[in-house]
UniProtKB/TrEMBL annotation:
GO molecular function, one term: glycosyltransferase activity
Protein name, as recorded: N-acetyl-alpha-D-glucosaminyl L-malate synthase
Pfam families: Glyco_transf_4 (PF13439), Glycos_transf_1 (PF00534)
Taxonomy, superkingdom: Bacteria
Domain Glycosyl transferase family: 195-350
Signal peptide location: none
Length: 375
């Protein structure tokens, strides 16, 4: 198949999933066209089967807001015609599903039919899309998609609860390339990051308020009072400054390593002992799955779809949002006993195997085939 993928090309989970999906589809013989405003961060290799088409939005002073949806739908029309793309798979409803629908209508005028698969990722439903300013357009474009998928049961239920959806929503969970996350990395540079007796705790996110990074700091503060420990904070975002300040106030700045945005998540996770994800909302928690693939147990909140990934008492523990004391108690329970820590590590890796890309990607292929047959 010739598949057009639209996504946010940034470090966010939806862009990562879309990119990894496109790369795997190309390996499986499909021709994949990424259509987005920048080269996706995890897209390192452009090959015969993987193409990248940049959406340019010319700046015009009259516009207070540059019309990205217009530029995207025009680009989609051009690329579908030029490369004879069979199907468009858009990740994140806003504004991708809307732009794809407009492209589909324009192409229809020329006798070309291209179906649209929309994958809902989380904040496009729970935070942004639900805003009254966007809701009618989001509802419309989901209903007008030829197939809709959500990355967890929880997100599917949220979508049905918050929007008037007349389409079936298929749950296709996020996936992981297990070969990229080895539990015994050859060049795992633990000794460069911490002393042998220190436990390494890690948090990876876009440091937005929804991630509750302050809870990460509180839990880590409590942990390091009980045992030697280091915190790896990976990612950039609006909370960073406040978090740095708090670390200084608490006197733990020396124990926190701010690693910024990184393309080497696997290397950081290979020396981590525990992953913290206390989010306010999380449709899936791809970062938790990445941690588990590296044999890192997870201490998380029980928001949204996290419980579909992190299994209570098996791969880690889940607490109510904001319950820092419970998270601390659970973290110490795992970290204080070497044997127990190793059991949780092994369980985390075993559970992650359920999300192997070789199991999940064929589910998307089946949806494409089914959609093409039905339309
Ligand atoms: O977590 C974010 O803020 C980024 C966001 C995105 O759109 O990239 O992540 C969402 O999609 C990920 C991939 O499907 C999910 O793993 C995240 O749980 C989801 N984030 C939220 O629901 C807050």
């Amino acid at each position: 198949m010739k598949i057009g993928i639209v996504c946010y090309p940034t470090f966010g989970g939806s862009g990562v999933v879309a990119t990894e999906l496109g790369l795997e589809l190309s390996k499986r013989g499909h021709e994949v066209h990424f259509i987005t405003y920048n080269q996706p961060v995890r897209l390192e290799l452009i090959s015969n089967n993987v193409h990248y088409h940049e959406v340019n939005v010319p700046e015009y002073p009259l516009f207070h807001y540059q019309p990205y949806e217009l530029a995207l739908s025009s680009k989609l029309v051009d690329m579908v015609k030029l490369y004879k793309i069979d199907i468009l798979h858009v990740h994140y409803a806003i504004p991708h599903a809307y732009a794809a629908y407009m492209a589909k209508k324009m192409l229809r005028e020329e006798g070309i039919f291209v179906p649209i698969v929309t994958t809902l990722h989380g904040t496009d439903i729970t935070l942004v899309g639900n805003h009254p300013f966007y809701k009618p357009a989001v509802t419309f474009s989901i209903n007008k998609s030829d197939a809709v998928t959500a990355v967890s049961e929880s997100l599917k239920n949220d979508t049905l609860r918050l929007f008037d959806i007349k389409r079936e929503i298929n749950v296709v969970p996020n996936f992981i390339d297990l070969t990229k996350y080895h539990d015994h990395f050859n060049d795992c540079q633990r000794s460069m990051m911490a002393k042998p007796e220190e436990r390494i705790v890690t948090h990876i996110s876009n440091l937005r308020p929804v991630k509750r990074v302050q809870d990460v700091i509180s839990v880590f503060y409590n942990i390091q009072k009980e045992m030697p420990a280091k915190l790896m904070l990976v990612g950039e975002g609006p909370e960073r400054e406040k978090v740095e300040l708090r670390c200084k106030e608490l006197g733990i700045y020396e124990k926190v390593v701010f690693l910024g945005k990184s393309n080497e998540i696997d290397k950081i996770l290979c020396y981590s002992d525990l992953f913290l994800l206390p989010s306010e909302a999380e449709s899936f928690g791809l970062a938790a799955l990445e941690a588990m693939s590296s044999s890192v147990p997870v201490i998380s909140s029980n928001a949204g779809g996290i419980s579909e990934v992190n299994k209570q008492g098996v791969t880690g523990f889940l607490s109510n949002v904001g319950d820092v004391d419970d998270m601390t108690k659970n973290a110490l329970y795992i970290l204080k006993d070497e044997k127990r820590l190793n059991t949780f590590k092994a369980n985390a890796r075993a559970e992650a195997k359920k999300f192997d890309l070789h199991t999940i990607v064929p589910q998307y292929e089946a949806i494409y085939e089914d959609t093409l047959t039905k339309c």
